[in-house]
């Protein structure tokens, strides 16, 4: 069997769409489609390949300073700055122009920002689900790791239900912070969408008033909202597909559930059994196919989503194998 890593030199990454159990032959195979390079970098930074990791470190070194550790601070501070702008400029202007009650908008956006920032801080600082040696725990390291556990260079112990390493929170996303990570990304998307709509509306109102200082602040906030949407949108698109198939990003990255047709070995061939040249050629054509039969955790869209959001994760004996 060939030992293929995902071809990081390509400019596009693959994502399989959600499964539909009602379609013919249960749709065990779904064609892979392309998503943006930004999402690829967020999801697929190889946490277990030291040489590639060293190369990626150089991407954040400017003037001899490694800026990567400051990304979580930049994420939190930009979100707080955006909230201040909304509370001090956009909401008062909209309420003054429409007669809406400020308390309603302050409450709505306050709850949205608090939930997003709360999930953000938790995701940054949380134990992602370390497999420690403890009493009366079925996933004791000496007894063998759970099937979906994975080792990260960031921690001494493997992570249960390891998904990926996120540079924006500088933490692994695993069993105990995966849902909070999704809520954080969803909150950022909501903030960005509402921010774009509010900024365009306020810009029209300010054009009539001629307030230069407020116009500059709104223009900067609009740029921030568009950039935030461009970053968080593709990430959420990837995770929607992964959750709907109950596939972890680490499994996706290593092509565990993907096959190809029209190969030198025939159809429905596991991609890791292909030669390097054929693997890369089929990858370039975007013809990797998700095979539901290779994923024992895929129980259909509805149950996959239910398990993700409702399955208990906090019991000490939770292995993450669901």
From TrEMBL:
<keyword id="KW-1133">Transmembrane helix</keyword>
<feature type="transmembrane region" description="Helical">
    <location>
        <begin position="103"/>
        <end position="124"/>
    </location>
</feature>
<protein>
    <recommendedName>
        <fullName>Palmitoyltransferase</fullName>
        <ecNumber>2.3.1.225</ecNumber>
    </recommendedName>
</protein>
<feature type="transmembrane region" description="Helical">
    <location>
        <begin position="216"/>
        <end position="236"/>
    </location>
</feature>
<comment type="similarity">
    <text>Belongs to the DHHC palmitoyltransferase family.</text>
</comment>
<dbReference type="InterPro" id="IPR039859">
    <property type="entry name" value="PFA4/ZDH16/20/ERF2-like"/>
</dbReference>
<feature type="transmembrane region" description="Helical">
    <location>
        <begin position="181"/>
        <end position="204"/>
    </location>
</feature>
<keyword id="KW-0812">Transmembrane</keyword>
<dbReference type="InterPro" id="IPR001594">
    <property type="entry name" value="Palmitoyltrfase_DHHC"/>
</dbReference>
<feature type="transmembrane region" description="Helical">
    <location>
        <begin position="70"/>
        <end position="91"/>
    </location>
</feature>
<keyword id="KW-0012">Acyltransferase</keyword>
<keyword id="KW-0472">Membrane</keyword>
<feature type="domain" description="Palmitoyltransferase DHHC">
    <location>
        <begin position="146"/>
        <end position="253"/>
    </location>
</feature>
<dbReference type="Pfam" id="PF01529">
    <property type="entry name" value="DHHC"/>
</dbReference>
<keyword id="KW-0808">Transferase</keyword>
């Amino acid at each position: 069997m060939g030992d293929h890593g995902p071809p990081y030199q390509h400019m596009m990454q693959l994502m399989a769409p959600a499964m539909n159990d009602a379609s013919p032959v249960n749709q065990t195979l779904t064609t892979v489609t392309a998503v943006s390079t930004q999402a690829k970098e967020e999801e697929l930074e190889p946490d277990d390949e030291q040489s590639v990791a060293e190369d990626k470190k150089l991407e954040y070194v400017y003037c001899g300073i490694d800026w990567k550790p400051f990304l979580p601070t930049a994420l939190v501070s930009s979100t707080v700055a955006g909230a201040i702008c909304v509370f001090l400029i956009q909401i008062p202007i909209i309420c003054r122009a429409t007669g809406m009650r400020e308390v309603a908008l302050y409450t709505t956006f306050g709850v949205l920002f608090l939930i997003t920032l709360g999930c953000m801080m938790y995701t940054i600082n949380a134990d992602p689900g370390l497999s420690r040696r403890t009493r009366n725990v079925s996933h004791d390291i000496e007894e063998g790791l759970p099937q979906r556990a994975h080792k990260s260079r960031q921690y001494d112990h493997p992570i249960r239900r390891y998904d990926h390493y996120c540079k924006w929170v500088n933490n692994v996303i695993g069993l105990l912070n995966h849902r909070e990570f999704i809520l954080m990304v969803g909150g950022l998307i909501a903030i960005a969408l509402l921010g774009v709509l509010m900024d365009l509306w306020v810009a029209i109102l300010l054009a009539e008033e001629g307030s230069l200082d407020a116009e500059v602040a709104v223009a900067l906030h609009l740029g921030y909202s568009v950039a935030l949407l461009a970053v968080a949108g593709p990430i959420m698109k990837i995770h929607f597909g992964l959750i709907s198939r109950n596939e972890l990003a680490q499994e996706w990255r290593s092509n565990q559930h993907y096959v190809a047709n029209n190969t030198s070995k025939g159809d429905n061939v596991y991609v890791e059994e292909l030669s390097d040249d054929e693997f890369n050629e089929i990858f370039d054509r975007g013809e990797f196919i998700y095979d539901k039969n290779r994923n024992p955790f895929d129980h259909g869209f509805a149950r996959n989503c239910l398990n993700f959001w409702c399955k208990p994760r906090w019991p000490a004996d939770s292995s993450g194998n669901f």
